[in-house]
Amino acid sequence: SLVDKANYRHFMAKEIHEQPEVVGHTLARYVDMATERVALPVKLPFDFNTIQRVNITACGTASYAGFVAKYWFERFARLPVEVDVASEFRYREAPLRKGDLAIFISQSGETADTLAALRYAKAEGAHTVAVVNVPTSTIARESETVLQTLAGPEIGVASTKAFTCQLMVLANLAIAAGKARGELSDEDEAKLVHGLVEVPRLMADALTTELQIEKLAHRIAKSSDVLYLGRGTSFPLALEGALKLKEISYIHAEGYAAGELKHGPIALIDETMPVVVIAPHDRVFEKTVSNMQEVAARGGNIILMTDAKGAEEATVESLVTIVMPDMSAAFTPMVYAVPVQLLAYHTAVVMGTDVDQPRNLAKSVTVE
Ligand code: G6P
């Protein structure tokens, strides 16, 4: 067949491992590699200077890509962003200003709720951009501008490579917005783009954590609940980590903003509770460490994903520390997605679930 599992046991494993390559292809489509400047493949039919607000709408994993992008648009372009799941956005009759920007993210380009949200935004007079993996899809056809992800066919029901390719496209769009709005200088742009150019290699490095994660998966497989924590762009990744684990291993998991721990989930923590902390050594690292201390004080089992510097400075005992490569703090979600996906994958393999086709789920949800 056109798409096979190569030497992998599941499509999901193959798709996780393909990421350095397909994220690299996507990067090359959105960046001029010679000058390391953003070079969008299409001309945008609007000026970021006249946009006052961006609405990002999607479902599932794609909505978490949008949530990461919110941090990027707000930081690089000082542009306020609202993120919605499509099933809420479409019925809320959210007021959109004519000429503002609405972004729709979808691997398949066929998700019914996302399509309905797109039609609503168009009717309200918003500019519409679709970040889609299937260029012939309905969402691609009906939106004003299409920014394609070059993930290639994704077969595993749980999205992996489409997610990281969505992030790559959105990072470039956010940098372009920052440039257009005068919030980023040429030098800022060069630095950020350089950070993006490094991502595929760093994702390949991140794949080397696999053996360690496979071992850890045997521990996780014995748990009935897992908590994922993160701050900043690691917060949406914590949500994605929890989603991945529950959809393919059927273990209950929850993602939380690390700073919200004390407002509820801390009550759940005891010696049986694994807590995955996604904490690259970025500007909120210290804050996350203090949340980890709260977890450790209650006997929670910390699984820390951080870099060498973070591992050295985290003065908290963890069950396992997964040491990630050093990198530009802005783009950690693409690289930390790798161990997050591997953990869900290997846990599901230990549990013996149908990894590529989990019960009750569909690859593309074309009905409400
Ligand atoms: C389904 C899939 C998810 C996916 C979501 C959105 O629920 O199981 O993996 O994230 O749909 O799909 P889309 O094609 O719109 O990205």
Most strands sheet: 5 strands, parallel
Low-confidence stretches: none
- Strands, total number: 12
Oligomer: single chain
Name the shape in a single word.
globular
Note the run of SSEs as H and E: HHEEEHEHEHEHEHHHEHEEHEHEH
List of distinct ligands in this structure: 6-O-phosphono-alpha-D-glucopyranose
Rounded mean pLDDT is: 95
The fraction of residues in strands falls at 15-25%
Radius of gyration in whole Å, from Cα?
Answer: 20 Å
Helical residue percent band: 40-55%
Subcellular location: Cytoplasm
GO molecular function, one term: glutamine-fructose-6-phosphate transaminase (isomerizing) activity
Domain SIS: 44-183, 216-358
Active site: 363 (for fru-6p isomerization activity)
